[in-house]
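Ligand: adenosine-5'-triphosphate. Inputs:
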Amino acid sequence: MADDPEIITHRAALAQPLETGRQRRLRLRAERAVAKQEAAARREDARFQKEAEAALEKDRPFMPPGGDFGEQALRSYRRFRVPAHQDTSAALRGTYPGIAEGGLGSRGIFIGHDMLSGGAFAYDPWVLYRDGVITAPNVVVAGIVGSGKSALAKALTTRSIAFGRKVYVAGDPKGEWTVVAQTVGGRAIVLGHGLRTRLNPLDAGYRPGGISDAEWTASVAARRRDLLGALAETVLTRPLGPLEHTAIDTALAVLATRTVDPILPQVVDLILDPDDDADPRLAEDGRQVGHALRRLVAGDLQGLFDGPSTETFDPELPMLTLDLSRVSENAALLSILMTCASAWMEAALMDPTGGQRWVIYDEAWRVMSHPALLRRMDAAWRLARHYGIANMLLFHKLSDLDTVGDTGTALHALGTSLLANAETRVIFRQETDQLGPTAKALGLTATEQSMLPTLGLGQALWRIKDHSMLLQTQLHPGEARLFDTSSAMSREPRKFTIPEVG
Ligand SMILES: Nc1ncnc2c1ncn2[C@@H]1O[C@H](COP(=O)(O)OP(=O)(O)OP(=O)(O)O)[C@@H](O)[C@H]1O
Ligand SMILES: [Mg+2]
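Predicted complex:
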């Protein structure tokens, strides 16, 4: 027990000499001083730490722009972010129905971007035809005044020149294509009162190889007969009777024995004053038709179509337009003027080896509001595919076609079928009250219909077969300058000055 080390220690402690009172006071004072110093040091440390944290906090942005990170992320507002995900357009089309259109592929002429998916959009009717997406290459474009119809037509056609296509504008009543044609190295034929230029709408046009003389004569005669009949019906605003058709036929048949290229004044003369051998009653039967056609040669349109053509059709040019802006006539005559001009051009274009060509009918509603002219146009459209031609028809309202013929008539059906048969339909902005039954004929959904009045400049709903896309046409600044049709509206007004007297 005596050797227990603990006891030894304890004993040792007990054995320490007792401190004196003074020593105790000194010890306690020293201990208090040490404790005080330690507390001051701790306070100092805490202060330093607080200042350092404050400085750090000051330098740190209150909240990172993308929100807090880590576990605090959900406490703060941040923008919705979906990690990028790539997939095929076929799969995305199913994942995001109504947002991502599968598209028509990237081959073709760049038009602009899809307003919903943001993807680029390219279009080429010949490519789509070859791929079996469409069965007819015609395009119908509708939209209110200034919505960007002509700008789209100009962009699409001028861009396609680089792909070897040629462009023909079969009547340009505003003359806005002239500068475009000149810029791309093409030509504008300007028609107008007092100008020397004449186009003969009865020109035989291009003669394809491999057909007999008899076939050729018959086909040219049929074309001339259709044109004259349509023109006469439009001026008379009624269908022609059988006797009147005979009067035209007889005059053309007599002329064919005398000349290869008859001109309108000769036809009119022969209708009003038939040959001596003809039935004497023919002059009476053809009187009204003769006088209707006389308007083209001696009336308001004199000097435009009443002589042999002064222009030859050059198939090498990239663009050819017929500028009708110098002829200011009333609406009915303008449609006749456009029909005569397009007839001359259409005859020249009937060359199946002429390559792929665009034929543009700007302001086509003028022609379409006349039943006979519409019928003629419909027939020309049906043939277009055979010649490698894609027609583009520009008009204002979907209801332009509703006005052709009364509802339920064959003519009305023709108007709507013209629209329905064009497998590419581009609908720019429409007024709410214009949507009407034709929008239903086009198969537009209620959402598509409601969208049409809200579209901006250059924005259009494209319907290609059963594909539906909302697209924005994009113009290069150079194109925008070239295609500008609104400069007259936006120009500074001329200052009014009082002329000095004396
Ligand atoms: N996508 C676009 N981007 C920029 N400007 C455009 C676009 N589309 C058209 N414009 C401009 O808007 C104006 C009107 O366009 P455009 O002449 O094509 O209209 P429109 O529909 O043919 O009119 P109208 O019915 O009078 O013929 C033009 O000056 C044209 O340059
Ligand atoms: Mg236009």
